[in-house]
Each structure stands twice: as C-alpha cells, then as structure tokens.
Amino acid sequence: MSREKYNEKDIVAQLKDNSLRAVAFSAIVERYSEQIYRHIRRMVFSHDDANDLVQETFIKAWVNIDKFRGDSKIITWLYRIAINETLTFIGKNSGNTISIDSPEGAVADKLESDLFFNGDKADALFQEAVSRLPAKQRLTFNMKYYEDMKYEEMSTLLDTSVGALKASYHIAVKKIEEFLKENN
Question: How much is the pTM?
Fold first, then answer.
C-alpha cells in the first residue's frame, strides 16, 4: 500500500479484520517507521540503538494490536509506545554509559564518527547540548523543536499538563543556550 493510498479509517478497520491485519500493519510500518526512527534517534543519538528501538516499538504495537481502539491516531499510539520504549532504554542504560563530560564520551565526537550523521561541528555541539538535558526534558524539547508538535498533543502523549510542558521546554531552551555560550 503506497503512502498516497494510506487511509487511516480504512487501516483501522483492516486491523480489526484478522484476514487483513498483517497487510494493514505493513502499511503502518511503511508509513511511520521513518518518522518513529527520527523521533527515537534524537533521544538516543545512536543509529543502532534507534533501529533496535524502532523494531521494539513495532513489535510491541503488533503484539498489542487488539488493544488499539482507534480513539487516537495510529501515529499517536505509536509515539506512546516509542516514548515508553525509549525512556525505558535510557533508564536501563544510564548507568552503563560513558560520561558525556569525559573526552571519550563526548556526544559531539560520537556523532561526528557516526556514518549516519551528516551535520557539521555546530550541529554536533547543539546535539551534545540537547543530550545533556534530562530524558523527559529532552523528549519535550525534541517534540516541540524538531517535530513542531502542539503542546496539547504532547500533553496527550505524555499525560502531563500543557503548563508543565511549556515550562519544561523553556528550561530546556535556556540550558541549551547556556551550554552553547560556554562551549562556543
């Protein structure tokens, strides 16, 4: 099913039909995997980790497909799964990572050596600033800055108030600005 022919209502109906479920799910994967990848990649900064988390997201979606009621958009449901998988991954790996303050652990250096990173030093420095944010603050920043998501939609996805999200985004921006001033 090509992107032009994707129809959310048809896909939701097909998900409820066991004989069409696999085809419908394939259309979902085709349509949203790149978007989910970009969202996750901004949180984990590693291509391999992001790919693994995208796979985990779609596996979890497939396993729980009967629980999708169609009350929200499919992408909203996938984002919730991706966010939970990513935050769990970050939480599990936070003690196993190299400090970003150490020279060998600098996010900028890791990004520049990553074959899938095509930015310059300024972009790498910006990504390092973002990486220093606490996970939930980084998530809020990424959703607003990169995906231009409305606070109301973020509120639904993250199950938090619009006011808390606005404050979190504002604080994140200030922290990034301070980091860039100190390291420029």
Answer: 0.73
